[in-house]
Write a structure and sequence with these properties.
The structure holds two protein chains of two kinds. By secondary structure, chain A is mostly helical. Helices cover about 70% and strands about 0% of the residues of chain A. Among the domains of chain B are: about 75-185, Dipeptide-binding Protein, domain 1; about 275-515, Dipeptide-binding Protein, domain 3. The chains are: A mainly alpha, B alpha+beta.
Chain lengths: ~270, ~550
């Protein structure tokens, strides 16, 4: 493990630890409105100041980080499993299955993502708690975000299907699910890992995009998207630099996730 | 003697020189009033340049600057003032208006203005095939609107049924030429459209034939041109204003206003409460897909009133709008001097009274949560449009206010098309928060909201017959005020409507935002008001000092 990977690992672990300790580090909570001090600058009481309705920004950043860091990997896991099922199996089966799967993933990839997300979000029931809304948001991201990974996996599985060792296994009488589980799937692992790690920052950004449009996680629960919305209308960085903290965190975390990938996984 | 004569001559010469200098200075002062280009932004592409088809803000701005009207509502005093019509008279039955037109007026292309042009404009406006929303305001009953040319400078317009506040409607009717080959390009207003670059800008130049003169006899407008850049991004608009590239911002958000006021106090203008209001309402549609017990809550005036009492409007005004808003009283803003019912006051924040009111309907608190008499926890969602930050903030504050009563509120932000579909077609929502942008002072402009049969009767639209007694009464009062020309009777009826709305609370009015604008120090003669267009309502009298602009 090189130094950059180590550093990235430390950063991600530290961020997870800090966000998990949010209730201890920021007892004010993310929802309480200090209406006498809206848009306040940093102080002892509010380390990063308050937002437009007087909520403690430090608490919101910690809770928002927790949501993004816990749920983006969960969404990435959902999408990677779906991609493995669709792309991996189609690549392994080959022939008509592969052509069908590729056609389907191409069709899926041609859909305008953001509009699709907005449409699906609008169809959801209205009376859901903020916690359920955040789970739904990331589940939607996971369910809609498998296509690109599936395409990569189908190509890799197709290559494996025609490889010498799989031919040899077939010649030895190994067929069906056992061949897939014993020989193909283990060799798809680097690609699966890569797709999983690549998907995390993608989902973090997707949620941030939805949040910036006001369509992400429901109020009063914070997320990086809703925190980044505060940057709208910020004309000068010098005026309120503490408002840039969520953006800096996003950049640090996304960079760390990229650095976590090993060379083999990047190549895969 | 000679010395005296020489001295007197010298004195006279000196006096003459002084007089010359004074004349030159006054001439320069008068001349400096003229010329220059005013620059500001339109926030969207104008959909049309046809003044009779105008339906959007950008086209409205262009129509205001280029169109000549018979009468104009003064945006400061709210009084009607003569423009192309020197005088007018409404018949006692309210079905006819007769205008005496100004003589010697010509369109921008030189063609003369007469009663034929007014007749042509009215005929075109009322043509059903045109689908003019401006024309819809004149449709008082079944039957056609007719015109009678009495003389080249006199015309009567006859309506099939009485039309209350008739003369005020002509503020929106830009007169078109009946004969000019240039059609809508021939205008009677202070400016004409000289250039339009789609997606980029509209350039207006001064109308050389504009009829109005200032008190010193100088022909108006003072400005040579107005450049309207099409710019939807408000951050960019503010940056350009600060850099001196723009002279006006017609409507400012409170955040931008405060920042501008902090850096350049003289440029930010707060004209006080506007006519616009933000409010929320509950879904009372009988066929709406909501549980029966929730429908029962929403249909209770006690419940609606209690929710209203539990909302801290002062906090909304102070926190969300940085005190650039006033707690709203009802459907009419206090800024509407004539029609506002001054007996009414904004609902004050009284959570204890709200709880008592709820208890009379069988609601009770249990472990900090409110339950109805059937044991159902009180929980509902408020939908609002995503992207409108002030409204989203208000929803979050209402969520916390109602949380103190044990009511769980889920705030749902939706993209605008989805929101409109839910509240006007599928009725699949529980409560909604939106706002009205009022441009009309007259209550007739609100007929589409208050009549139970109307499409915009938001809480329960398009009723075949009024479902409640109070809605039937509001229908009756609104029709009564619309069918009489007597302002006193109309006011009595509409005052009662406002009282009934306060009692029944179909809309929970939250705030009236202030009219905030920005005007560069380079602009002379600006006097921002609350009525649209806030900053350039007197565009023909505005001046721009290029040297001041350059020094900003």
């Amino acid at each position: 493990m090189n130094a950059a990977r180590k550093l990235a690992c430390v950063v991600v672990v530290a961020m997870c630890a800090v966000s998990l300790g949010a209730s201890w580090l920021a007892p004010a909570g993310y929802a309480k409105q200090f209406r006498e001090a809206p848009s306040a600058p940093p102080s002892h009481q509010h380390l990063l100041g308050t937002d437009e309705v007087g909520r403690d920004r430090f608490a919101r950043v910690l809770y928002g980080t927790r949501i993004s860091l816990l749920l983006a990997p969960a969404a990435a896991l959902v999408s990677t499993v779906l991609a493995a099922l669709v792309g991996g199996l189609a690549g392994y089966l080959g022939g008509i299955w592969l052509r069908l799967a590729r056609g389907f993933t191409d069709l899926f990839l041609s859909l305008p993502w953001l509009f699709l997300l907005i449409t699906v979000r609008a169809l959801l029931p209205l009376n859901v708690s903020p916690l359920v809304s955040v789970l739904i948001t990331f589940l939607i991201l996971g369910l809609l975000g498998w296509a690109a990974s599936a395409r990569v996996l189908s190509t890799s599985a197709d290559a494996l299907r025609n490889s010498d060792f799989v031919l040899q296994a077939r010649a030895s009488g190994l067929h069906g699910p056992r061949l897939f589980l014993v020989h193909v799937l283990p060799n798809l692992k680097p690609v699966l890992y890569a797709q999983f790690w690549i998907s995390i920052p993608v989902f973090i950004l997707s949620e941030a995009n939805l949040g910036i449009l006001g369509l992400g996680v429901a109020e009063p629960l914070p997320s990086w998207g809703s925190l980044l919305r505060e940057l709208e209308g910020l004309i000068s960085f010098r005026e309120e630099p503490w408002r840039l903290v969520p953006l800096l965190l996003l950049i640090v975390v996304l960079t760390s996730f990229q650095l976590l990938l090993s060379n083999e996984e990047v190549t895969a | 003697m000679n010395m005296i004569t020489t001295g007197r001559r010298a004195y006279l010469r000196l006096l003459f020189c002084f007089a010359l200098v004074c004349f030159a200075l006054t001439s320069t002062a008068a001349f400096s009033q003229s010329g220059g280009e005013l620059r500001f932004c339109l926030r969207s592409e104008p959909k049309t340049f046809d003044p009779l088809l105008v339906d959007d803000d950008s086209s409205l701005s262009i129509r205001y600057l280029t169109g000549g009207v018979l009468v104009r509502a003064n945006r400061k005093t709210q009084d009607l003032e003569p423009e192309l019509a020197e005088s007018w008279k409404v018949s006692k039955d309210g079905k006819q208006i007769t205008f005496k037109l100004r003589r010697g007026v010509t369109f921008s292309d030189g063609s003369p203005f007469s009663s034929e042009d007014v007749a042509f404009t009215m005929q075109r406006l009322m043509d059903p095939a045109l689908h003019s929303s401006t024309g819809d305001a004149f449709r008082s009953g079944s039957g056609a609107v007719s015109t009678k040319i009495i003389a080249p400078d006199q015309i009567a317009i006859i309506f099939p049924a009485p039309l209350a506040g008739l003369e005020r409607l002509f503020d929106q009717v830009a007169i078109m030429s009946a004969h000019s080959p240039k059609k809508e390009a021939a205008v009677l207003g202070p400016f004409l459209v000289a250039e339009y670059k789609a997606g980029s800008s509209v350039l207006l130049r001064r109308n050389p034939n504009y009829w109005k003169k200032d008190s010193q006899g100088h022909r108006l407008p003072y400005l040579d041109s107005i450049r309207l850049d099409i710019q939807s991004n408000r951050d960019v608009e503010m940056l350009r204003f600060k850099r001196g590239e723009l002279d006006l911002i017609n409507v400012l958000d409170s955040d931008y206003f405060d920042r501008l006021a902090a850096s350049s106090p003289g440029l930010a203008h707060d004209a006080g409460a506007s006519l616009d209001s933000d409010f929320m309402w509950f879904n009372l549609v009988a066929s709406a897909p909501i549980p029966e017990y929730k429908r029962a809550w929403f249909r209770s005036a006690n419940f609606r009133r209690a929710i209203s009492q539990a909302i801290n409007r002062d906090d909304l005004s102070r926190v969300v709008f940085n005190s650039h808003a006033q707690p709203a009283v009802g459907p009419v803003s206090p800024a509407n001097k004539f029609w506002f019912n001054s007996k009414l006051k904004a609902e004050s924040y009284r959570p204890d009274a709200a709880l008592k009111r709820l208890q009379t309907d069988g609601f009770h608190l249990q472990n900090g949560a409110l339950f109805d008499k059937g044991g159902n926890a009180v929980e509902f969602s408020i939908v609002t449009n995503a992207g409108n930050k002030p409204r989203e903030r208000m929803a979050v504050m209402v969520q916390e206010d109602l949380g103190k009563l044990g009511i769980k509120v889920n705030v749902v932000t939706l993209d605008f098309p989805s929101l409109i579909e839910r509240i006007s077609q599928k009725f699949n929502y529980e409560a909604a928060m939106l706002g009205f942008r009022n441009v009309d002072l007259d209550p007739n402009g609100q007929m589409n909201i208050w009549l139970s049969s109307a499409e915009d009767h938001a809480w329960n639209p398009q009723q075949k017959s009024p479902e409640t007694a109070w809605e039937a009464e509001i229908d009756r009062l609104m029709r009564a005020q619309a069918s009489t020309a007597d302002p006193k009777k109309r006011k009595e009826n509409f005052d009662r409507v406002q009282e009934m709305v306060a009692e029944q609370t179909p809309f929970i009015y939250l705030v009236n935002q202030n009219a905030l604008s920005a005007v560069s120090s380079a602009v002379g003669g600006a006097n921002p008001g609350i009525l649209s267009p806030q900053t350039f309502w007197n565009a023909e009298r505005l001046t721009v000092n290029a040297s001041t602009r350059a020094s900003r």
